Amino acid sequence: MDTAGPPKALLIDLDGVLYVGNDPVDGAAEAAHWIAQQRIPHLYVTNTTSRPRSALVERLAGFGIETDASDILTPPVAAVSWLGENAPGPVALFVPSATRPEFDALEILDDEANEGAAAVVIGDLGHAWDFATLNRAFRLLMCDPAPALVALGMTRYWRSADGLQLDVAPFVVALEHACGCKATVLGKPAEPFFATALRILDAPSEAVVMIGDDIVGDVGGAQSAGIRGVLVRTGKYRPKDLEGTIEPEAVLDSFAGLPAWWKAQA
Question: What pTM, to 2 d.p., does this model score?
């Protein structure tokens, strides 16, 4: 991928880069501290929709990484920015209760309403999904004029302690199919998510580097938005990731190697 001078800002994935599950990545906290010392503009970016940013701040602190909620970009934060510009009016939320405070800046439609939404926002409700809940989202989307359908990511499934579980994508796809509409996705690897990150950083895409463990969601998504992508060999990384069509600008053994790589770009 062509570059335009040394990088100036960072986007940093969380799970798989700074920590894996409940275990910190060796040297990640020290690298994060170095970034702060060097005053490098940065955002921590994640597709997590089940936890508010305040909980992520506490989690990072537990791994020795001090940050602030304003330094974390999640799909709900990107959605609030997008909705304010593209779908003004009442928003129907289908998100976990812990995530709802992230939308406090918006006008929220009553949870019993079947009409009147300017947008319908779908997150990972997990076991809270049932027919009545999904059908209410369907009824809202079938109104005239049709509200925008906003998906907080398109992850198909994930592995919990007791096995595989459906994530948000199957419910979004069901609504798209039933309503004949297309969702705006506001999570990695969608371009609007990265565009929001660039606006927050106030930096041109070519000056920003994304550090992630997901060759598609992190590296590929960033590159599609004109951002450089660096892959780490931790988290969900597998050697076969390097056999596909997506070519990261660099591959680091872990986030601990970021300071040395960054200095070499100067």
Answer: 0.84
